Amino acid sequence: MAGVYTEFLSFLNRYGVAKTSHFRLFVPQVFKGDKFSDIGRVLGLRCEATELPGRQLVSNDSRTYGPTYKTPYQSLYQEITLNFIETGDFLIRNFFEAWVSAIYNPLNNQLAYPSEYRRDVELTQYDVMVLDATSPRSSLRSIATWQLRNAFPTSINQMPVSWAEDGLHRCTVTLAYEWYDLIPGDKPVTPTVGSAPVPPRGSANT
């Protein structure tokens, strides 16, 4: 039995584990001008929780003779939820409100063209890599980046207020997208506070 535990620890040390706290969000510029010029950095540093995107194959039941089997015909990509710690001036809420209003104008009920409001959003999963075994220096190694193609917000959740609590405001937004490209990570990076995420190195579909 001791051999099983030794083998388990050996494989655990060899392949490691991926931690849910090591991620980074990047949302590109949506509007021209200086009003939301720093929003990408703010969103990247204040996104406290989200999900790495999922994918599902939709299928039909098929049968020529014998047992029934599944025949896939389409991919479905689930929406993701982004949770942000709100700024003191509600910059995050105002940004997504402006983005949603740019998609559908509530004053004249006009819908914008998709090319005007859809953007590619990135989610990167990192791993801690020790640079020097004799010192506490470490760096972040990019494991994978999900590029959410043609993404846009579909909902902004309510933000509760209460005299009974003195907590932090959190802005929760749901994003839809057409598909994602999964880009494998390979190079170590050393991001500083407030720095931009690692730029994409290519597409898995190219």
Compile the SSE list and pairings:
Blueprint: H1 2-15, E1 23-26, H2 39-46, E2 47-49, E3 55-62, E4 69-77, E5 80-85, H3 91-103, E6 104-105, E7 110-111, H4 114-117, E8 119-130, E9 138-156, E10 170-176, E11 179-184, E12 188-189
Antiparallel strand pairs: 1-8, 2-5, 3-4, 5-10, 6-7, 8-9, 9-10, 9-11, 9-12
Helix count? 4
Main β-sheet description:
8 strands, antiparallel
- Average pLDDT taken over every residue: 84
Structural class: alpha+beta
By oligomeric state, this entry counts as: single chain
Query: Helix fraction?
Result: 10-25%
Helix and strand succession? HEHEEEEHEEHEEEEE
Features:
206 residues; alpha+beta; two-stranded antiparallel sheet; 4 helices; globular
Tell me what the structure shows.
With 206 residues, this protein is an alpha+beta fold. 19% of the residues lie in helices and 39% in strands. It contains 4 helices and 12 strands, in the order H-E-H-E-E-E-E-H-E-E-H-E-E-E-E-E. The chain has helices at 2-15, 39-46, 91-103, 114-117; strands at residues 23-26, 47-49, 55-62, 69-77, 80-85, 104-105, 110-111, 119-130, 138-156, 170-176, 179-184, 188-189. Strands 1, 2, 5, 8, 9, 10, 11 and 12 form an 8-stranded antiparallel sheet that branches. Strand 8 and strand 9 (138-156) form a beta hairpin. The longest helix has 14 residues, at 2-15. It is globular. 18% of the residues are buried. Residues 190-206 have low confidence and may be disordered.
